[in-house]
Amino acid sequence: MKWCLSPRTLALAMILVSLSTWAQQGPIEIHDRLVPQAGAARKIALTLDACSGKYDHDLIEFLIRKRIPATIFATKKWLDHNPFGVSVIKAHLDLFDVEDHGENHIPAVIGAGRKVYGIPGEPDVIHLRREVTEGAKSITEVIGVAPHWYRGATAEYDSQAVDEIAKLGYKIAGFSVNADAGATLSKLAIEERLKHIGG
Q1: Which residue, 176, 130, 175, 172, is CA-closest to 149?
Q2: CA–CA separation, 108 and 26 (whole Å)
Q3: Is the pLDDT higher at 155 or at 83?
């Protein structure tokens, strides 16, 4: 028996197969690179994740002293627990952008039992939406500037989460180098990875 599919049906079937394959592959990291400008010096975009730990005074003071801009992806949890750090960052919004890292630092993978780096993901779409929107709300209230970018905990996503985050109006922030592999690498391994940035 021979099947004849219209181009539209064939295209839809290819998209469904592609999404199905992505779902079976598990979560992925999204990688971004700055587009080089002709004649301009090479640049990198520094992003830092403020998850649920303490404020790193030495790091932020170094960036301020050297006038190095950075985008900080902060969770509501981090903002709530680090009022002094928040005050320093707010005093230097000429250097720092603060974007959404979620409410409670939960990976953007959906389904019971799913984990990334041992951290449980979201049980369903409703919980994912809350993670994104409550994180954004906290940044707007605490920092005074509404975020436009989202980076989920662990920076890994499944296809359903990617779709939902886009529906909420946020762009997903990736990176070209994951310097600490989800806070699992030693200082020496991180330094070795950072040597290859922009190479």
Answers
A1: 172
A2: 11
A3: 83
